[in-house]
UniProtKB/TrEMBL annotation:
The keyword Transmembrane helix applies. The chain crosses the membrane at residues 290-317. The keyword Transmembrane applies. Residues 330-451 form the RNase H type-1 domain. It comes from the Eukaryota. This is RNase H type-1 domain-containing protein. InterPro entries: RNase_H-like_dom_plant, RNase_H-like_EbsB-rel, RNaseH-like_sf, RNaseH_domain, RNaseH_sf, RVT-Znf. Signal peptide: none annotated.
Amino acid sequence: MGFRNLQAFNLALLAKQGWRILSNPNSLLAKVYKAKYFPYDDILNAKLGSNPSYAWRSIYNSLEVIRKGTRWRVGNGKRIHIWEDKWLPTPSTHKVISTPRDFDDFPMVSSLIDANSKWWKPDLVKALFLQSEASEILKIPLNLNLPEDSLIWLGNRRGSFLVKSAYYVAKELVEFEAACASSSNHLASPFWKKIWHVNAPPKIKIFAWRVCLDALPTMLNLRRRGLNTAGFCQICDKELESISHALFHCNHAKQTWSCWSDCPVNLYSPTCDFIDITSQIMEKGSSSDLGLLLMVTWSIWGIGTMPFIMMLAALLLKFGRLLKGFHKINVDGATNNNGNHSSIRVIIRDHTGATIDALNKSLPSAFPAPTIEAFALLQGVLFAVEMGLTRVIFESDDLALIQAVNSNENGGDLGHILQDIKAQALVFNWSIFQHLKRDGNKAAHELARDAKLTGHSRTWKGVSPPFIHQILIEDML
Ligand SMILES: [Zn+2]
C-alpha cells in the first residue's frame, strides 16, 4: 500500500480499534472500555482517565483521526450539537457556518426536527441559518423512524472505515502536529494561530510553515547545503533563486499575482519576505485573502516549472476559485420527451460566481446526446467570443467530449465540430475545458429543464434567471 509514515500508519490502525468500539457498542471490547473510561458518554467524548492502560492510551490518542475523518448522519439529532459538530453534507468543513443563535437551551439538531411530522421544521431552519445553508439542511434526508444518529466515515461512499483512508487523515495530523510543535518556538504565536486557522487544506498550511522557516529546496538553499549548483533560478536564469524570488519576483510568479487585482498589499517590495507579506495581509486583508495568498504561493512553488497557463489551470481546478478577470462558462444539452427537439444552454459567470449572461436555445431536431453536448460547447465558445471574454473556463458534464477537445483527435462524426470549438477558442488569451460532474452543473440543467417545458429560446442579459438563483448560490459555496 506504500505507507511511508509509520507513525501515521500506527495511528490509523489504532483508530480502527476506536472505530470498532464506536460502531459496535454492544461488543465485549466496547463494554469493557466503556465501563472504565466513558460510562456516561460515547468514546469520542471519553477522558484519558487517571491511570489509563497502555492500550487505552493508544486508542485514546487515535480518536482525533476518527473525529477528523467522520461526520454525523442525522437520525433523531439528539447527539448532534448544531454549532459544534460536523453534520452538513458540504464537503468543506461539514460544520455550520451561519452565526450561532441563542434560540433554545438545547442547541441540538433534534430541536430542528418536528417529532410529529418526522421532518425538519422549515420555518425555524430558515430563520436560524443563512439561506443557502438552510436549503442544504432541508435537503438532508430523514428516516421516518428517527433512529439514533450515527457517525459516517468520509473517506468512501459507503461510509465505512478503511485503514487506508484513515492513514491519510492520520498523516495530516502527524505532520500538522510536528509543524505546530516546532513553530511555537520560532515565531510569535498569534501569527501561527492565524495560519493554522485559515480555511485551506493542512498541506498548504504546512507548506507556509516551511516557507517561513526558509526550508524550501530553492536553488540558493541547495547551494548552501553544498550541492553543486550556482544557485540561479532555473526558470528565468537571471537571479539567484531565493524563496522571495521563486514565489514573488520571478516573472512567472509576477504574472500569476497580477491576476489578484484587489490584493491589499504590495507583493513585490524588494525588502519584504514571505513573513512580512503574510503579516501585512493579516493586518490589512480578510482571512480569505490570507487563504488565497497561501494557496497561490503553494501553487506557484508546486508547479513553478510548468507554463503559466497550466499553473493557473491547476490552481483553479484544485480550489474551484476564480481569480478576477476570469469567467466560467457552463454548458449543457437536453432532449425533450417527445423527441422532436433538443435544446442547449450556456451560463457565463464571473469570478464571484455571479451570472453575467445566460443563453438558452432550441435546436431544430432531436440530436443524439453527444451531438447536443458538442453543440452546447460550441455555442458556449461562440457566446464567450461574442462577449469579448479573454480568460475562460468551459465546463461540461460530457467527459468524452471534454477529453476529445483536450486531445489532438478531430476524427469521428463530431470531429468537425471539435475543430470548430478549438479554432474559435484560439481567440482567448487563456482557456481550459474541464469536465464537471452532473451535480456541479445544476444551474445549466435547470435552464435546460426550462427550455424543455417552454420549448423556445431565451436569453438573459446581465441577470440570472430567477429560478436558478438558489442553485447558483449553492454552487458558489
Ligand atoms: Zn526566476
